[in-house]
Amino acid sequence: MEIHRKTKQVQQLLEYFDEQPNAVSTSDLITRFKPEMNRTTVYRILGRMEEDGIIHSFNGPDGATWYASCKECDHHNHSDVHPHFKCNTCGAVECLEIKVVIPNVPNYKIEHQQVMLTGECKVCLN
Asked: Hey, what CATH class is 8-125 in?
């Protein structure tokens, strides 16, 4: 399902992700947009944006779902296969622009992979 109708709420989330350099958790998005939209609306729009290749989701080390902008994805193909990093000091979560090669596993078809790294980010190291 593509986002055909860009309601005010859809436009708000699209603009937010255009300006957001790091990943953001679902709970942070719900809190951020609470005055403008309810929890169900946020989840519905996030689902449509992910289906359309605008954003991608991944699970953080605490099990929370995080979202970040896609670079070269579309409705048919998510090509954002990269690791994510969470800083244990400042809490920032970001996409790492490095390629991870998942090995072929005999007798298995790998359809999804996720790599989450944790530690200290470059800002907190200094």
From this structure: mainly alpha
